[in-house]
Amino acid sequence: MKAKVQVFLKPGVLDVQGKAVEAALHGLGWADVSGVRVGRTIEFDVSETDPAKAEAEVKAMCDKLLANTVIESYAINFG
Q1: pLDDT confidence bin for 69, thresholds 50/70/90
Q2: Burial letters for 34-67: b for 16+ Cβ neighbours within 10 Å, e otherwise?
Q3: Among 10, 12, 51, 63, which lies 20 to 30 A Cα-Cα from 70?
Q4: pTM beyond cutoff 0.70
Q5: Residue 11: how many CB atoms within 10 A of its CB?
């Protein structure tokens, strides 16, 4: 089963990289762009075939390693 985890900073946490991208976009002429946030996507295969068990397994991976849950949120998708 293919898992896709999207990790992003929680609202209210300063996204320095997002601000840099926003400034660069403004510099290139896209002045109407605002609120840029940068995250990351992690894709991998899990051998678990039961969807509920696979989701629980990936959630545990996120909580322990893939996301810093103090400042980051994550979303899990399978497909």
Answers
A1: very high
A2: eebeeeeebeeeeeeeeeeebbeebeebbeeebb
A3: 51
A4: yes
A5: 8
